[in-house]
Amino acid sequence: MAQTLHNFHFEDLLNKHHLKKTAPRLRVLSMMSSRNTATSQPDLESVMNDIDRVTLYRILSAFEEKGIIHKVFDLNGTANYALCTSNCDEGHHHDEHLHFNCTQCKNVYCLNDLQLPAINLPVGFVPQAFTLYATGLCPKCSKKAVKQ
Amino acid sequence: MAQTLHNFHFEDLLNKHHLKKTAPRLRVLSMMSSRNTATSQPDLESVMNDIDRVTLYRILSAFEEKGIIHKVFDLNGTANYALCTSNCDEGHHHDEHLHFNCTQCKNVYCLNDLQLPAINLPVGFVPQAFTLYATGLCPKCSKKAVKQ
DNA sequence: ACGTTAATTGTAATATTGTTGCGTTTACAT
DNA sequence: ATGTAAACGCAACAATATTACAATTAACGT
Ligand SMILES: [Mn+2]
Ligand SMILES: [Mn+2]
Ligand SMILES: [Zn+2]
Ligand SMILES: [Zn+2]
């Protein structure tokens, strides 16, 4: 998100979901909103190395359950987390956008604006949610590739 | 695959890729071809508990590299493996089909016949491959749901 | 302000998944 | 039959995730 988000936004967000405003939670929200790509669990852990690992896992699963963030696995099966932009409710996510995983920088981009085309499944399959994944080069890495 | 595949098919397959025909490899191929869903790493490990874990990992990554199988992460980030049906080459996969993950039985189905619609990405993103994921109820589980 | 309490965090222990190094075995080409 | 590279088994380790429980603290009513 290029937009600067302020702490009281996060505090409101936590309030709304009946979650206590704690330092670790605010820091996680702040870190994730300061990036334009999803944040991997290893990243989160190394940046917030003063916060206990278990606490981080609990914060992440609480946020995910409340519909504040959503989880995406990248090419290597690593968990990445990004703020939900759509109005995701407790237990019901609506993050049916494209996830672009750059093979160079490994970043995962949420392309929220890209709406999925209609899919019709074989008989018997009852879909609940779709996600489209793409791999390739992100704008930064494709630019670099041209220069060389 | 409902079709019964015979051992000599697997032996030919291994030959083609310059892989030695060993008992563990043949058993992995046999197990995977006997199922109509992808096989999870935990499943593989518990069924083949007499084969060393490391050997299984090495077989899986060799097969994946050769384009014999492809890897899919399910909802929980667990690795699942399925035989490639498209002509996948060494290092180049073409498994751009839909992966359906049943929320009930947790099985991952490769819906090979379902071709992906065209997607146009924002400027700068250079795609290499796409995968479409869906979650929901598979035919078996949706049938059970109706009965209750 | 202050005390109460449920929610949250920290700590330790454990489980699961995946990797690396190395010695032994074996498939297969000659 | 024999030599050899490939594959396997074993041990040790690394990374990721979960559980149980004790200590702390944010939020609430007074
Ligand atoms: Mn996303
Ligand atoms: Mn598949
Ligand atoms: Zn990139
Ligand atoms: Zn099912």
Explain briefly what this protein structure is.
2 copies of one chain form a homodimer. The first copy, chain A, has 5 helices and 6 strands. Chain A is an alpha+beta fold.
Biggest chain-to-chain interface with counts: A-B, 34 and 34 residues
| CATH A-level architecture of chain A | Orthogonal Bundle
The global form of chain A is globular
Please, how many helices of chain A?
Answer: 5
Oligomer: homodimer
Q: Which structural class do you get from the secondary structure elements of chain A?
A: alpha+beta
How many domain regions of chain A?
1
Describe this structure in words.
The structure is a homodimer of 148-residue chains. Chain A has helices at 7-16, 23-33, 41-47, 53-66, 139-147; strands spanning 39-40, 69-73, 79-83, 98-102, 108-111, 126-137. Chain A has 148 residues and is α+β, with helices and mostly antiparallel strands. Chain A has a single domain (7-147), classed as Winged helix-like DNA-binding domain superfamily/Winged helix DNA-binding domain (Arc Repressor Mutant, subunit A). In chain A, strands 1-3-2 form a three-stranded antiparallel beta sheet. A three-stranded mixed beta sheet of chain A has the order 5-4-6. The longest helix of chain A has 14 residues, at 53-66. Chain A starts with 6 loop residues before the first helix and ends with a helix. Chain A binds chain B through residues 73, 77, 79, 98, 100, 103, 109, 111, 113-114, 117, 119, 121-140, 142-143, and chain B through 73, 77, 79, 98, 100, 103, 109, 111, 113-114, 117, 119, 121-140, 142-143. β6 of chain A pairs antiparallel with β6 (126-137) of chain B, so a sheet runs across the interface. One manganese (II) ion binds at residues 70, 72, 82, 95, 97, 99, 110 of chain A. Residues 70, 72, 82, 95, 97, 99, 110 of chain B line the site of one manganese (II) ion. Chain A binds a DNA duplex (30 and 30 nucleotides) through residues 19-22, 24-25, 41-42, 45, 51-55, 57-59, 62, 77-79.
